[in-house]
Design goal:
single chain; alpha+beta; four-stranded mixed beta sheet; 4 helices; 21% strand; globular
């Protein structure tokens, strides 16, 4: 069995949290982040944002790339944990002084 498969089989759920790097979302030259959760892969969800499908306007407009080092060790998880983790991840980034969108 592949390493990724065995890791995923130990965790329940198929939801993920993800973080998108935003270039200059407020127009003041500062970068920011968007934190979200999804039942898709983070890559699929980011593509949907960029295409304007069920998207956050700030990601469609300013989203540059995913930042997997901030979330991939957390995924996958069940829906309830993803809701909690989305908010916790956003709060953690805000406490470090970053401009953060999402993270409901």
């Amino acid at each position: 069995m592949a390493k990724t498969s065995s890791r995923k089989s130990k965790r329940s759920g198929h939801h993920s949290v993800y973080v998108v790097y935003l270039r200059n979302p407020k127009g003041d030259g500062r970068a920011g982040y968007y934190v979200g959760m999804t039942g898709l892969s983070p890559e699929e969800r980011f593509e949907n944002h960029k295409k304007g499908y069920k998207s956050a306007a700030v990601v469609t407009r300013c989203g540059e790339r995913l930042v997997p080092r901030l979330y991939e060790h957390l995924n996958p998880m069940d829906y309830a944990r993803a809701l909690t983790m989305e908010a916790a991840l956003a709060d953690s980034l805000r406490k470090r002084g970053f401009v953060v969108y999402g993270g409901h």
